[in-house]
Model the fold of this input.
Amino acid sequence: MASVATIPTEGQILVDIEDMTMLKDIKKAISMLKGVGKITLPRRRKRYSAYELSLRDLDEGRVYKYDSLDDLIKEIEG
Done:
């Protein structure tokens, strides 16, 4: 009985790029290769400012209230 190996119709290659200024040239060079269908770049995660992170903490309830500064210091000291 003969076995037949299937050849994958498509695959992916992950490329780590150290110098992001070369991204456009690298993308162009890869697109010239025979068999390359499309090139997609992952979306970068948005970096939030300290203010935006604070607002997010407030919305999600990660906030502590103290009656005075002395109460806060006592809580920190344990």
